[in-house]
C-alpha cells in the first residue's frame, strides 16, 4: 500500500552539501531580489497595499517548498491571480479578497483529490498559448492607468527603465536587470529630488512578520456567493499556470514531478497565505526560470527565496517606499513582453498553423481580454477546441459499398470514428429502396464511441427491416462490440 502523499514531504527534507547549498542560496537570493518589485507591482494591480503581495510571496514560497511536487519551482504572488482578484478587491475590500484566496486554496485541494492534474493533458496547446498571450495583454493594459495624467518625468523614467532592462542582459546577467533599473531610477529620483508617484504612495509596506488571522467577513451564504466566483477563478487559473510551469521545468531538468501533489500543494499554500494576509498566487514562470537557470534543483532555493524576500523588505521597507512607480511600470511592461508568445503570431507561423488552432487561440485571448477573467477565456477556448475537433473528425467518416456479382447481397464498408457528430449522417448513406435482400455493414475500419452511433445503427436496421431486408453488422472491435451489445435495441428514438 502506497504511503499518503501529504506527510511524505517530511521524509524529503534533506540538508544539501556545502556546494549545493551555496548554489541554492545564491539562486534564492537572486529570485528574492527579483520578486520584490513584481510582488509590489502585482499588489497594485490587485488594488491592495504592497504588503499584501509581499506577504503572499513569502508565505507561498515557504509553504510550497515543503508541500509542492516540483522542486526548484517558485510560487508567489502573480499577475494572473492579481487580475482575477482585482474586481473583488475594488468592490468589497481586502478582507473579502483574503476569504476568496482561502476558499480558492480549498478548491485547489479538492480539485487535486479529484484528479484535476490529469485533465491537463486535455488542454490544447492553442488554449495554453492563448492563456499566456491574454495574460501578457492584461498585465500590460493594467499599467496604463499609471501612465495617464502623471507628471512628464514618469514617461522619461519609464523609458530609461525599459532601456536598462533591454540593454543590460546583453552585457551581463550576473544581476537581475529589473533590480538594476529600480535601483538606478530610485537613486536618481531621490538625489535629483524629482517629484513622481512612489511605492510609498500606494499603501503600507510591511515592517513586521505576517500575523495569522481569520478574514474579517460575515460567515453567511451571501458572503459565499460574493467570493465563490473569484475563488473558483483563483483555483483554476492558479492550477493551470502552476501545472504549465511544472511541465516546463520537467522538460528543462529532464526530471518528472508529481502534478497531483503540486496541485494540492498550491491549494495548501493559498489557504495559508489567505490566513496570513496574502493576496494568493501560483507558480511563476519567469521567476522559476531565473531559479533553475541559476543552478537550483532542490526545495532549498524556493524556501530561501521566501525568507530572503521578507528579510529584505522588513529591513529595507523605508528604502522600498522610495521606489518610483515608473520603475515598476517598466518592470511590468517587460514582464508582459517576455510573457507574450511572440512566435505564435509570426506571419510564417500563422500561415502554417491550421485555421482551427488559430481560432482557438484568438477566442481564448478575446474572451479573456474582454472579460478580464482568465478562467472564462480558458473555458471558452477549450469549448471552441472541442467543437472544432468534433467538426473536423466528423468529416473523416467514409462509407463505400460493393454489390455481389449475383446481386443477392451488398457490403457497406464504414471507416472512421463514429460518435454523435459523425454518426448523425450515417443513416443517409444507405440505399434502402434499391438494396438486395441481404446487407452487410462492415465496421472493421471504424470505432463506435457512444450511444448516438448505436442509435443510428438501430435506425438503419429498422429501416431495412421495414422493407424485409436482413442486415448483418460485422467487424466490430472488442470495445465497439461490447458497447453495441449493451445498448442495441434499448435506445429510444432508434428509428
Automatic annotation (TrEMBL):
<dbReference type="GO" id="GO:0008271">
    <property type="term" value="F:secondary active sulfate transmembrane transporter activity"/>
</dbReference>
<feature type="transmembrane region" description="Helical">
    <location>
        <begin position="307"/>
        <end position="340"/>
    </location>
</feature>
<keyword id="KW-0812">Transmembrane</keyword>
<dbReference type="InterPro" id="IPR036513">
    <property type="entry name" value="STAS_dom_sf"/>
</dbReference>
<feature type="transmembrane region" description="Helical">
    <location>
        <begin position="150"/>
        <end position="168"/>
    </location>
</feature>
<feature type="transmembrane region" description="Helical">
    <location>
        <begin position="360"/>
        <end position="390"/>
    </location>
</feature>
<dbReference type="InterPro" id="IPR011547">
    <property type="entry name" value="SLC26A/SulP_dom"/>
</dbReference>
<dbReference type="Pfam" id="PF01740">
    <property type="entry name" value="STAS"/>
</dbReference>
<dbReference type="InterPro" id="IPR052706">
    <property type="entry name" value="Membrane-Transporter-like"/>
</dbReference>
<dbReference type="InterPro" id="IPR002645">
    <property type="entry name" value="STAS_dom"/>
</dbReference>
<feature type="transmembrane region" description="Helical">
    <location>
        <begin position="126"/>
        <end position="144"/>
    </location>
</feature>
<feature type="transmembrane region" description="Helical">
    <location>
        <begin position="96"/>
        <end position="119"/>
    </location>
</feature>
<feature type="transmembrane region" description="Helical">
    <location>
        <begin position="216"/>
        <end position="240"/>
    </location>
</feature>
<dbReference type="InterPro" id="IPR018045">
    <property type="entry name" value="S04_transporter_CS"/>
</dbReference>
<feature type="domain" description="STAS">
    <location>
        <begin position="411"/>
        <end position="495"/>
    </location>
</feature>
<keyword id="KW-0472">Membrane</keyword>
<dbReference type="Pfam" id="PF00916">
    <property type="entry name" value="Sulfate_transp"/>
</dbReference>
<dbReference type="GO" id="GO:0016020">
    <property type="term" value="C:membrane"/>
</dbReference>
<keyword id="KW-1133">Transmembrane helix</keyword>
<feature type="transmembrane region" description="Helical">
    <location>
        <begin position="175"/>
        <end position="196"/>
    </location>
</feature>
<protein>
    <submittedName>
        <fullName>C4-dicarboxylic acid transporter DauA</fullName>
    </submittedName>
</protein>
<feature type="transmembrane region" description="Helical">
    <location>
        <begin position="60"/>
        <end position="84"/>
    </location>
</feature>
<feature type="transmembrane region" description="Helical">
    <location>
        <begin position="25"/>
        <end position="48"/>
    </location>
</feature>
